[in-house]
Amino acid sequence: MATATMVEEQVVYQRPEALNDIPTHYCPGCTHGIAHRLIAEVLDELGVRERTIGVSPVGCAAFAYQYFNTDGAEAAHGRAPAMATGIKRVLPNRVVFTYQGDGDLAAIGTAEIIHAAMRGEKITTIFINNAIYGMTGGQMAPTTLAHQRTTSSPTGRDVALTGFPIRMSELLAQLPGAVYVVRRSLHNVKEIMKAKQAIRVAFEAQINGLGFAMVELLSTCPTGWKLTPPEAMEWLEQEMLPYYPLGDYKVADDVAPLLKKRR
Amino acid sequence: MAVELMKGNVALAEAAIRAGVEAYFGYPITPQTELLEHMAKRMPELGRAFVQAESEVAAINMVYGAACAGARTMTSSSSPGISLMQEGFSYIAGSEVPAVIVDVMRGGPGLGNIQPSQADYFQVTRSAGHGDYHPIVLAPASVQEAIDLMGLAFDLADQYRHLVFVVADGLIGQMMEPAEMPPMQPLRQERPDWALTGAEGREVNTIASLELHAEGLEAVNLRLQAKLETIRAAEQRSTEILTEDANLIVVGYGTAGRIAQTAVLQARQQGLKVGLLRPISLWPFPEERLSELSDRVQAFLVVEMNAGQMVDDVRLASGGQVPVRFYGRMGGMVPVPEEILHEIVTVYEKLITSGV
Ligand SMILES: Cc1ncc(C[n+]2csc(CCOP(=O)(O)OP(=O)(O)O)c2C)c(N)n1
User: Fold this and answer.
1) What SS3 state is found at A169?
2) I want to staple B283 with a disulfide (CB 3.0 to 4.6 A). Which of A24, B32, B137, B307 is the partner?
3) What is the mean pLDDT of residues B204-224?
4) Whose CA is nearest to atom 6 of ligand 1?
5) For B66-111, what is each residue's pLDDT tens digit?
6) How far is B299 from chain A (nearest CA, A)?
7) B58 near B65, Cβ under 8 Å?
8) Residue A77 CA: which ligand 1 atom is closest?
C-alpha cells in the first residue's frame, strides 16, 4: 500500500478583502471585473482598505461602489474628479480614487479631469478606455477609433465629421500637477500584471502626497463591439494598441523611486 | 461682538465661517464675487478648504463630495451659475447629504445683467434640479438677517440632511449696513456616522442617488417626501408688521419686502389699514400664516422683483378666499416705495369696502 504524503494546503489565490463577494453585472469577456480585482488587490497589499473612499462613475461601472469593500460614492456623469476633490480636501489623509469610463472622463467630464490634474489633486484615477459607451448600448465615445462602427457611427467613425480619437494620457501628462500618468492594457496576463504594478504606483504616489496619478487601462467591450470575448481581446491588441501605445507618459522625479521598489 | 459696517456678501461669507463651514467651493460671478473673495482669504488662514473650481458644475460636485465626507460645506453663485449647478443640487437632494447654497440673484433670462432681481424664485423653490423635491429656501431682507439665516441654514442642512438655499439679490449682496457677527463656533470634531471617512473598524458606508428598481426608488421618494412634510410643518418662517387690523396685506420677501415696508408705513400715514407679511422661508412657504390672514383681510398685494412668481404661492395659500393682486418690476429694476404706495392706494380703492 502506497503511503500518500500529506502536503499542507496553501492558499495561493483568493478574493481580496477589498472586493465584495457578490456577482457583478458585467458582461462575459468585459475587463471591468479584472480592473476591479487589481485595484482591490492593491488596496489590500497597501493595507489602506479602511482608509479608502472610492468614487464611481456613470457608465457600466456605476455600481462599482457596491463591488468594492470600501466606503464609496456614486458621482454624476463625469464629475467623479470634482467629487473626489471635495472628499480629499476635507479628508486629506484618506485614500481617494475615481474609477471612470471614457465617455465619463474624456467627454462629459473632460473639464473635471483636466482641472483635477492641473490642481495636482492627491487622488488616483483609474481610467477604463474601451473605445465605446458601454452602458448606453454602444455609442461612439471620444476614444472610438477611426472607422470603428458603433450605434451612433453606424458606417464607421468618420474623422472628417467627428474628429480623431482623444488620447487622454498624452494630454494629461502635459500638466505639472499630474505626477504619474501611464497607459496599460488588460488583454493578456503579462499586461495585466504590468497594469497592477502601475495601479500600485498610482496609489503610492497619492499616499506619499505627490500629486495626481492616473492609470489608463485599455479594456474590452465584447457586447458593444459585437465580438466574442476572444475576438474582443484580439481586436484590442490589433486595433487599439497601435493608436493607444502602452507606456509611461509621465513619471515625475519624486515618483521614480516608487517604480524601483521591490514588489 | 460689536456692530460693524459690513457688505452683504462679506457678511454672508463670514457668517458661514462663524457657523463652522469647513470647505468652500465656488466660481466667480457678479454680484456674489466678494463672498468667494472673502473665503479665498479667510479659509486658508483658518486651515480650512477653499477651492476656486473650474466651473459651477465642478464647484457643486466638490460640495457634494465634501458633504459626503461629513463636512459643513457650501458654495455661492448667482443666477447663471445656479443654473449650471442644478445637476449637483439634484444629486445632493437624492442622496440626502447636507449642503448650503447662497444664490445672489441677478436679472435674467440668459446672461441678463448684474442688477438685483428675484427672477429665480421658481428655480430655487420648485426643485432646483430634476426630480421630485424642494430645497429649504431662506430669504434675508437685511445684512443682519443674512448673517442670522446663514447660521440657521447650516443647522437646518445638518438636521434634515438636506439642501438649504440662502437667496439674496444683488442689493443685499452689495449693500453695506451695520450688523453684528455671532461668535466663532468651533469646527465640528466628529463626523456623522453615515459619512464616507474610510471604513475603519466598521461596515462600509456608501452614498448614491442611484436605485434601478422602481419599487426601491419609490420607497426612496416616499422617505424624501415624508422628510419634506416634516420640514413643511416645522420650518415655515415669516415676519409681519401692522397686520392686526389690516384690510389689505402686502406680501413681499427680501429686498422687495423691505421696500414694501416703507410703502406700507406711508399708506398708514394716509389712514389706510395696510399691513406687511414678509416670508423668510420661501420653501416651505409660510402658508399657515398666510391662510390665517386670508380669513380676516379683504385683499393681498404681492410685490416681487419679477413677473409674478411667489404670487402663485400666495394664491394657493389663500385658497381663493380673497383677491390677490400683483405688482412687480423686472430685469434688475428695483421698485421705489412710491410706486408700491401708488399700487396700494389703487388696490385699496378698488377692493377694500370698509374700515377706512
Ligand atoms: C448627464 C448624463 N448624460 C448622459 C447619461 C447617460 N449615460 C449613462 S452611461 C453613459 C456612457 C458611459 O460610457 P463610458 O463612460 O465610456 O463607460 P462604459 O459604460 O463604457 O463603462 C451615458 C452617456 C447620464 N447618465 N447622465
Assistant:
1) helix
2) B137
3) 97
4) A136
5) 999 999 999 999 999 999 999 999 999 999 999 999 999 999 999 9
6) 46
7) no
8) 26
Contact pairs from chain A to chain B, CB under 8 Å: 130
Q: How far apart are the first and last CA of chain B?
A: 45
Q: Chain B contacts of A50, Cβ < 8 Å?
A: 198-201
Distance CA A221, CA A151 (A): 14
Domain that holds residue B173: 3-234
Q: Which chain A residues touch B61 with a CB distance below 8 Å?
A: 75-76, 79, 82-83, 86, 112
Cell 455609442 locates to: A139
CA of A175 to the centre of ligand 1 (A): 26
Kindly report the CATH number assigned to the domain that includes residue B257.
3.40.50.920
User: Around B189, how many Cα atoms within 13 Å sit in the side-chain half-sphere?
Assistant: 1
The better pLDDT of the pair B85, B189 is held by B85
| ipTM of the prediction | 0.96
Query: What domains can you pick out in chain A, each with its CATH number?
Result: 32-146+164-262 (3.40.50.970)
Q: What is the 3-state secondary structure (H, E, C) of B64-75?
A: HHHHHCCCCEEE
Q: Residue with C-alpha cell 453663485?
A: B77
Q: What angle do CA A24, A29, A31 make, to 5 degrees?
A: 70
In which residue ranges of chain A is pLDDT below 50? Answer: none
What is the tens place of the pLDDT at every residue in A68-85? 999 999 999 999 999 999
Residue B356 has pLDDT above 50, yes or no: no
- Whole-angstrom distance, CA of residue A40 vs CA of residue A17: 7
| Domain shared by B99 and B229, yes or no | yes
Q: For the segment A208-235, what is each residue's pLDDT rounded down to a tens digit?
A: 999 999 999 999 999 999 999 999 999 9
Going by the DSSP 8-state scheme, the letter that residue B355 receives in this structure is: -
Tell me the whole-structure pTM to 2 decimals. Answer: 0.97
